[in-house]
Design goal:
The protein is built from 9 helices and 8 strands. The chain is α/β, with parallel strands linked by helices. It has 3 domains: 12-52; 69-114; 121-246, Nucleotidyltransferase, domain 5 (2-Layer Sandwich), CATH 3.30.420. It has a 4-stranded mixed β-sheet with strand order 7-6-3-8. Strands 1-4 form a two-stranded antiparallel ribbon. A two-stranded parallel ribbon has the order 2-5. Strand 6 and strand 7 (205-212) form a beta hairpin. Helix 1 (12-23) runs antiparallel to helix 2 (28-35). It is elongated. Residues 72-143 form the Transposase Tc1-like domain. One of its GO terms (biological process) is DNA integration.
Length: 247
């Protein structure tokens, strides 16, 4: 193994000075001493200038890139259609078509295109009519002043899984596409192996929190509201005459 320290590359300005002094008749040792550059480096720069007419770095002659622009666009298009596609999936698909590319090169290609493996956002599983209702709500309230939102008490239920997730999913997506439907994982309110909580919050902070015992029925829900809503309003300070309850 070569343990020698790698020298820093000389700047374009230093190389030009070497050629300038050489043209003025200075010897290799004199140039080396004046510019504090090794004699062998001075000789190499001058020889390169005589051969190629330049002291700039020449284009490399390394191995041809495995993934050209056409193949890169194809890989990106595949992931854009199905963000859960893995580099191994892409490798297998390309191999079936007669193209051999390593997992590492595929991941590098995706990374350079801004596509990184990220955990999918968890969003409620909504049917079409609920999606329309939420959109209408947003349109109706988009221009409400800040004072209005300061008097809103938001309530909801959430489920915590006791034993964690069976496996962790990842999606390949751009930074600003977190909530595209294909990049999310739908969630539901109820299920086994979990605990259900009811809670609320307002602009000024969090309100009461209650564990839901067993399956929540209509009368259970009404009891939760009776025990928690008004105490939360008194704690958080919305206007008692004009506050809004928002489920």
């Amino acid at each position: 193994m070569d343990n020698r320290k790698r020298r820093r590359e000389l700047s374009q300005d230093i190389r030009n000075k070497v050629i300038d002094k050489h043209r003025k008749g200075k010897g290799y040792k004199t140039i080396s001493k004046q510019l504090e550059v090794p004699v062998t480096t001075v000789a190499h720069i001058i020889q390169k200038f005589k051969t190629h007419g330049t002291v700039a770095n020449l284009p490399g002659h390394g191995r041809k890139r495995k993934i050209d622009d056409k193949l890169r666009r194809r890989i990106v298009r595949t992931v854009s259609k199905e963000p859960r596609t893995t580099s191994k999936d892409i490798k297998g698909e390309l191999l079936d078509q007669g193209t051999s590319v390593s997992d590492r090169n595929i991941r590098r290609c995706l990374s350079q295109s801004g596509l990184h493996g990220r955990r999918p956002r968890r969003t409620p599983l909504l049917k079409g009519n609920y999606e329309k209702a939420r959109l209408e709500f947003a349109k109706m309230h988009v221009n409400k002043p800040q004072r209005f939102w300061e008097n809103v008490l938001w309530t909801d239920e959430t489920k915590l899984e006791l034993f964690g997730k069976a496996h962790q999913l990842y999606v390949l997506r751009l930074k600003d596409e977190a909530y595209n439907e294909k990049n999310t994982v739908p969630t539901v309110k109820h299920g086994g192996g979990s605990v259900l909580f009811w809670g609320c919050f307002a602009a000024s902070g969090t309100g009461c929190l209650e564990v839901v015992q067993g399956q929540m029925k209509s009368q259970d829900y009404q009891g939760i509201l009776d025990r928690n809503v008004l105490p939360s309003v008194r704690k958080l300070g919305p206007s008692r005459r004009s506050w809004v309850f928002q489920q």
